[in-house]
Structures are given as C-alpha cells and as structure tokens.
Design a protein that fits this description.
With 366 residues, the chain is mainly beta. The protein has two domains: 170 residues, no CATH class; 145 residues, no CATH class. It has one helix and 20 strands. The strands form five sheets. It has a five-stranded antiparallel β-sheet with strand order 1-20-19-18-15, with no helix packed on it. A hairpin with a 6-residue loop joins strand 16 and strand 17. It is globular. Pfam families: HmuY. Keywords: Signal. InterPro entries: HmuY (IPR025921). This is Heme-binding HmuY-like protein.
Length: 366
C-alpha cells in the first residue's frame, strides 16, 4: 500500500515536470511581435488656440503616427535625466531668471533684485544674459550645473512666463529656487519671491525621459513623451533673430525642433532655386532610398527651426521648395514636408494658423 502511494506521487511529480518542461520550451519559442514603423501619413498638428502665439507645444512620433499636445506654459523647470546635473528654463514660455548671490532661500526677497532686469530685450543684439541657452547646449544652461558641493548652489529668481521691456513684471508672479544634488537625484527648494518659508521636492532621475518637468505653481508634470517616443516638436519659443554678432533673442511662432537629446537627426533638402526652378535635386515625391548617399544629417536642435515657413516676404506660409529628412533613434528615415501653416490674412497656403499640416513617407526602415 505504501509502495502504491509512493509510486503515484512519483508519477504525478514526473508528469508535472514533463508538463512544465514542455510549457517552458513553448514559452521559449514565443517571440514578441515586432511592430514595423509607419509607412507615413498626413497629419494636422493640434497647436491649439492663439494663432501665431498658439498655446500648445506638439510632440510628434513619425514611426507610430502619433502626436501629443500640451500647453507650453504648463512647466517652469526641466531636470535633465542624463549624466549631467543640468536644469533648463522654459524658452517656450519666454522664461527668464537672475542669480542672487545667496544660498539661504528664506533670506531672498524682492529687495535683492531689480525686477526690470528680468525683462527680455527682444531685438537687442547680444541680450541673452537672463534667458536660457537657445541652442539646447546643456553645457550652457543659465543655471550652472548643480554642484555636489552644496554651498556652491546659489539662489535664482525665476519669471516663469517672461516679459519683454515695457511689460509690467510683478513680484507676485516670481519664484525663488535653489537646487541641490541628492545622491543621483535633485532636490528643489522653491517659494514665491517674498515668502519666508519654502517647499522642498526630490526629483528622481529617469533615463527613459530627456527631462523631468516641474511647474513651480503646481508641482511635477509630464511634458515630453519618453525620449524614444518622439522625433520633432512644433512650438512657439524664444529663438535667434539676426545673425552672428548681431543676433538677438526673438519670440518665434511655428518653430520645429528635433529630439536631439534622444538621438534624432535631420537634413534639409532644397530642390528649387530662388527663381523657383528645379536645381537638380529630387523633389519630395521623387526622393527615394538611393538618394540618401551624400546626405549629411545634423543633430542640431534647430536644424529645421523656422526655415520651413515664411511669415514675411513671398511666398508666405509653408515653403514648397524644400522638405526634410528625419532619422529617428531607431534608424528609420522619413521624408517630411509641411503643406500649410496659415500665414497671411487670408492665409495664402490655405491653412489655419496654429494647426499646421504636414505629410511624411518612410524612405528607409532602420
């Protein structure tokens, strides 16, 4: 009787082992399906209300035909998730900032600054001292890299929504911040300018995103998609007017920036000359994979910027003499052109300002 019970248990365990092994082998053979990138589509971006000062920033992922729109003034500071400890201001809201030579946040008030020094000198050559770097170079952020030596991190006064000369800047709208390291993370101390107490917030690095974002009014907020999930952004932003030594800060509508920190690169192809004649380069419709030879892709944030459209001169609107090649972080290459943006009154390209239209097509799969 005992032998029979033992044999039954042994048989059951053996059978269970065989079943498990078969199941494991079956699972080992299962593969996660690979979703191919989009072949391309047409898209209207949701820039929202405001026309030439449209309220949204729009992030676009070409390989999945998706866009994400979010109010560009909804964040104040971006905390870099890479190896550097860098913090950016919101150029898409026209933010400005001043350093105060103090490290005690509670000891800083309106009396420590001249409010007018926060005004942005739009159109004044070289007036970049109170705004963040416009190229996206993280070694040149207005707030220096956050030091591991706590006493080296000073207080900054932030005007989250900016203002040009002539605008009234109220202390009630300003914040004071001090940012420290906390191991591999950040500690943000912040308060309204004349407050005598402050709040403290730990911001943990997450390398699936380029930045973690904070609204000084409302706290943490998600702005960008994960860094692997977007390629270009369309937005209003501070950017460069003029050229060279005569360049100056200027508020631009309809700017296009690439996801340069996430590995996106791009190239411009102008296939017509100034008189509108073909210059020997393939048109948007004709460009194919064989034409990629000799194309030089750039990782510059502003490789597209405002060159794709005109708001003065002729012809207004989306420029039909050019298109762009976008290489995403997976190596997929798309050709992309804007077909309307709504410039002019009435719009000369048939579009609606704040809702630009584009089309793109996969040229080479990564």
């Amino acid at each position: 009787m005992k032998t029979t019970i033992y044999t039954s248990k042994f048989f059951f365990l053996a059978l269970l082992g065989i079943t498990t092994a078969i199941s494991s082998c079956s699972r080992d053979k299962d593969t996660v399906p690979v979703i191919p990138p989009s072949d391309g589509t047409e898209m209207t971006l949701d820039g929202g209300e405001g026309g030439s000062s449209a309220e949204n920033t729009v992030f676009v992922d070409l390989s999945t035909d998706t866009q994400k729109s979010i109010k560009r003034t909804s964040w104040s500071l971006g905390f870099y998730n890479g190896s550097q400890f860098r913090v950016i201001l919101n150029n898409t809201a026209g933010a400005s900032a001043l350093k105060v030579n103090k490290t005690d946040l509670n000891a800083v008030s309106e009396s420590d600054i001249n409010l007018d020094d926060l005004a942005i000198s739009l159109g004044t050559p070289g007036a970049f001292d109170n705004i963040d770097d416009l190229t996206g170079d993280l070694t040149k952020t207005l707030i220096p890299e956050i030091s591991a030596t706590e006493s080296s991190n000073q207080v900054f006064v932030i005007n989250p929504v900016g203002g040009s000369h002539g605008a009234t800047i109220s202390a009630d709208n300003l914040y004071k911040v001090r940012i420290l390291r906390s191991g591999n993370d950040y500690t943000l101390q912040y308060a309204q300018l004349n407050a005598t107490t402050f709040q403290s917030l730990t911001i943990k690095k997450d390398d699936t995103y380029n930045f973690n974002y904070i609204s000084l009014e409302n706290g943490p907020i998600t702005i960008e998609p994960k860094k692997a999930d977007w390629d270009i952004e369309w937005t209003w932003s501070l950017y460069f007017g003029g050229a060279g030594a005569n360049s100056f800060p200027y508020g631009y509508s309809d700017l296009i920036f690439i996801n340069y920190l996430g590995g996106t690169t791009a190239a411009e192809v102008v296939f017509k000359d100034a008189e509108g004649n073909d210059n020997g380069k393939p048109s948007f419709a004709d460009f194919s994979e064989s034409d990629l030879a000799g194309i030089s892709f750039s990782g510059s944030k502003g490789v597209m910027a405002s060159d794709w459209r005109k708001t003065t001169g002729t012809p207004l609107g989306a420029q039909s003499d050019r298109y762009y090649l976008i290489k995403d972080s997976s190596g997929n290459i798309y050709k992309l052109r804007f077909t309307s943006m709504g410039a002019g009154n009435p719009p000369t390209d048939g579009g609606t300002r704040g809702y630009p239209e584009l089309e793109y097509k996969l040229v080479k799969q990564g």
